[in-house]
Amino acid sequence: MALRTLEQLKTEEREARRRLIADTARDLFSRKVFRDVTVREIAKTAGVSVGTIYNHYTSLGEVFLDVFLESAKEITDLMDSALKNKDGDVFRRFCRTYVNYLNENMTFFQMMSNFILGGELSEDGVHNLNNSMRSMVDRIEQAVILAGIQKDTRIAAHALFSALNGLMISYGRYPGRTPEEIRQHTLRLTDVLAATFAASTRG
């Protein structure tokens, strides 16, 4: 087995520090509104200096994006699993998979909304965000095709993506309701949306 070069070791060390920063940020985001988390707080919790964070990220927005992209990979993997399981109503189950993930990972949803509404990102950041969003919509398009939708499937995918996200904007943090009550209600609405959407957009 060949010995790793000094450059390889440096690269691994740099990646480990970046991973530590991103994991720390994700943990903090899970406990409070992500926009309230500061670079100083991430640095203190991770046991690194503020300068170290800026050695790896150009801005706090880039930290947000790194965490978002990791979660986006999780949700696309779940989407793939839902699409591969052909038992029962694939379309309904696919929609439920998406909404369930948002219920359990509200920070991801908040970040996605923030970026869509114009969060500041570098050129590379915008490129990575667009690739991630395109990947999600690709899966949604596969789902609408499986539902029997034959015309304008990309537009249909955009419409479904908007509808599912709109559902979460309306009820994902409804005051006076427990997380379980919210989850059950959003899933009921998801079932109605899936049935109505598939029926009204076929052929």
What does this protein look like?
The chain is mainly alpha-helical and 203 residues long. 77% of the residues lie in helices and 0% in strands. The longest helix is centred in the first third of the chain and has 26 residues, at 6-31. The chain is globular, with a radius of gyration of 19 Å. The protein starts with 5 loop residues before the first helix and ends with a helix. The mean pLDDT is 87.
Short key terms for the protein model shown above:
single chain, 203 residues, mainly alpha, 9 helices, 77% helix, globular
What's the alpha carbon Rg, rounded to whole Å? 19 Å
Summarize the amount of helix as a percent range.
over 70%
The total count of strands amounts to 0
Order of helices and strands: HHHHHHHHH
Q: What overall form do the CA principal axes indicate? A: globular
Contiguous uncertain segments of 5+ residues? none
Q: Would you kindly provide a brief summary of this structure?
A:
With 203 residues, the chain is mostly helical. It has nine helices and no strands.
Outline the secondary-structure elements.
Elements: H1 6-31, H2 39-46, H3 50-56, H4 60-84, H5 90-104, H6 106-116, H7 123-146, H8 153-171, H9 179-200
Helix pairs in contact: 1-2, 1-4, 4-5, 4-6, 4-7, 5-6, 5-9, 7-8, 8-9
